[in-house]
């Protein structure tokens, strides 16, 4: 995520090896069709600390996670982070390739990030809670 002028450093993010590889492939494929969509995800992948899947703390946002977050101080919202093919905003399933999905990936409970929406407007997002699916994918 790009930082606005004068912003503090970005929060540390964690990703598991297999998820990192999967998202790298996704971003590379998306980059051929829509580089402006893939670039933010690639930036997040570049700065991620990559660990074995079993080393990811349970409060880290990953694919399949149900995330409760607050944006710009508004009421909390809950979404599940998914691959683009499973995205369905009416069902609360947000693609990891959307600006908010890219902002969420790898964050943990309590972390905050500033991210730019597609219209360029900056938003501040804070992760309030993370719930992993019952059978977390390895």
Question: Can I get a quick summary?
Answer:
This protein has 138 residues and is of the alpha/beta class.
What does the secondary structure layout of this molecule look like, with pairings?
Elements: E1 14-16, H1 17-33, H2 35-47, E2 49-51, E3 66-71, E4 77-82, E5 93-95, H3 99-104, E6 112-116, E7 122-131
Helix pairs in contact: 1-2
Can you walk me through this structure?
The protein has 138 residues and is an alpha/beta fold. 26% of the residues lie in helices and 26% in strands. The strands form 2 sheets. Strands 5-4-3-7-6 form a 5-stranded mixed sheet. The chain has a two-stranded parallel sheet with strand order 1-2. Helix 1 runs antiparallel to helix 2. The longest helix is centred in the first third of the chain and has 17 residues. The N terminus is likely disordered.
> Proportion of β residues?
25-35%
Helix percent band: 25-40%
Order of helices and strands: EHHEEEEHEE
Characterize the main sheet.
Answer: 5 strands, mixed
Average pLDDT reading: 89
What gap, in angstroms, lies between the N and C termini?
Answer: 26 Å
Compute the CA-based radius of gyration.
14 Å
- Record field, number of beta strands: 7
Structural class: alpha/beta
In which order are the strands of the major sheet placed? 5-4-3-7-6
What is the number of helical segments per DSSP (H or I, 4+ residues)?
A: 3
Contiguous runs where pLDDT drops below 50 for at least 5 residues: 1-7
Query: Could you say which overall geometry the principal axes of the C-alpha atoms support?
Result: globular
């Amino acid at each position: 995520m790009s930082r606005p002028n004068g912003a503090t450093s970005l929060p540390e993010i964690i990703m598991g090896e297999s998820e990192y590889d999967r998202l790298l492939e996704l971003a590379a494929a998306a980059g051929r069709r829509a580089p402006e969509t893939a670039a933010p995800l690639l930036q997040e992948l570049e700065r991620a600390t990559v660990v074995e899947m079993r080393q990811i703390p349970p409060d880290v946002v990953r694919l399949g996670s149900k995330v409760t977050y607050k944006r710009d101080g508004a009421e909390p919202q809950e979404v599940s982070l998914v691959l683009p093919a499973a995205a369905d905003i009416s069902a609360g399933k947000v693609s990891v390739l959307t600006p908010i999905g890219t902002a969420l990936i790898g964050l943990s409970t309590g972390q905050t990030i500033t991210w730019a929406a597609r219209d360029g407007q900056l938003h501040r997002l804070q992760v309030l809670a993370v719930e992993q699916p019952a059978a977390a994918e390895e």
